Amino acid sequence: MLPETAPDETFYEVFGQTDRGEPYVQLGSLPAADPEMALVLARELFSRRGEVISLWLVDREAIHATERLDGDLIRATDRTYRMGEGYRVTVEKRRQLRRVTS
Amino acid sequence: MTDEQRLQAFEARIASGEKIESDDWMPDLYRKQALRLILTHANSELMGALPEREWIPRAPGMHRKLAVLAKVQDEIGHAQLIYRVAEDLARPLGLTRDDFMKDLIAGRAKFHNVFSYPAPTWADVGVIAWLVDGAALVTQGALLRTSYGPYGRILRRICAEEAIHLKHGEDIVLTLAGGTKAQRQMLQDALSRWWEPLLHFFGPPDEVSPNTEQMVRWGIRLKSNEAMRQEFLQNYAPKILEIGLLVPDPALEKDPESGVWHYTQPDWDVFWKVVRGEGPKTKERLSLRRLAYEDQAWIRQAVQGAHHVA
User: Fold this and answer.
1) Most buried of the four, A22, A64, B93, B282, by CB within 10 Å?
2) How far apart are CA A34 and CA A79, in angstroms?
3) Cα four-point dihedral sign B178, B182, B187, B188
4) Is the alpha carbon torsion for B112, B38, B155, B220 positive or negative?
5) Chain B residues with CB inside 8 Å of A31's CB?
6) Predicted complex ipTM
7) Are B253 and B156 in contact (CB under 8 A)?
8) What is the tens place of the pLDDT at every residue in B166-212?
9) Whole-model pTM?
10) Which residue in chain A has the smallest CA separation from B307?
11) Rounded distance, CA A37 to CA A51, Å?
């Protein structure tokens, strides 16, 4: 959940990509009257040294967000079947199979 | 959940190293303490641009001019980023960036003592960029691990840029140190002028206020004033002495056993005078800030609509 904004101001969340193939990462936010001005400000604030090759600006109001998810609750139950660690025995199983088939 | 339970969960989260986000529940006091710290930083970035700004037209050579210009732009950029973090934190208190600006201009807000001093020579520009930014990097580096997430994130960018400023300052200082007798003297005079404000920078050593204790307990800030001053002396005193400069304190010496730097206490009455807004350049710089704020109101309105930026 993001803080509410007053009706007369627009806050833009700024996302940047450092290189082609990289994910867009949130860099910060800024206030602006319209998207065009927001883009100008974002370049000045977040890419003075060419740190990013591309910027996304998102009106904060347009973001749909979850509540913070309780990771501990999920991890409290056995979910090893979803994880790589749940399948560590495969090497041992292959060895056993080789013994049986050779 | 009662407030007591909320507080316990909040403190447990901080104790486990989790960060607090702007929309998390937090004690009112945490919000106010974090906001105060963050606003002091933002105001300092904004006011810190002023002494160096004076040197843009007078910098020796095009390269130096561009470097000072870029540094000033960085400091203003930092102020923008930090005020934005402060805005989210201040929203539940009903405060906006307009309030921050008005408080600053009216002399009601705090900013670092060092920005109340004059920068009369080019050597001052070098000493400011090397040692004042070096001191700032000590405090901001310690704050990278602050429990307030949005501030810690924005500090990573700020610290990276401050580290560049430091190199720019060191380059000016080393150039003057290797220059003529007059240039070396100008450098020595600048260092002598800045030594006391630099020791003041970290605040008085006997900070035992309940306020500070609480801030450390909540991880808003992490190191004591004296610990940061010691870190500064450890990092910079040997480098200053190595280039043949004299520190205006015959008592400055590192204890070989404990590793603690001994130094003469600066005049803390002078520090408190500057904190009260009676520094040599406080009023002049604030009126310059007020002038800029008023003269540029039409630009803010054009650019930002109803919303104002610093």
Assistant:
1) B282
2) 46
3) positive
4) positive
5) 84, 87, 97, 304, 307, 309
6) 0.86
7) no
8) 999 999 999 999 999 999 999 999 999 999 999 999 999 876 677 88
9) 0.90
10) A9
11) 20
